[in-house]
Design goal:
- By secondary structure, this protein is mainly alpha-helical.
- It has a domain of 33 residues.
- The protein is 34% helix and 0% strand.
- The protein is built from two helices and no strands.
- The protein is globular and about 40 Å long.
- The N and C termini lie far apart (40 Å).
Amino acid sequence: MPDTKTHKRSERLQILLATAELEAIDDWRYDHHIPSRAAAIRVLLRRGLESQNLEDPADNAETSEYSVVDKPLSYERPA
């Protein structure tokens, strides 16, 4: 793992997730005893970047076609 003490985090990333996607990330985080949601997302990003066995995304896919979970999602904001 990189030495985060010498690399200050200064960039913010904002994404919208459906409730089911966030629940999947949080469930994974708790199952793996990760101290924070941000740390869990960093681990998952690192694993994804290192993965060689995944199919490439389709050309010209819409952003809504990319999901964390394999089920239909609703991106409506709660009332």
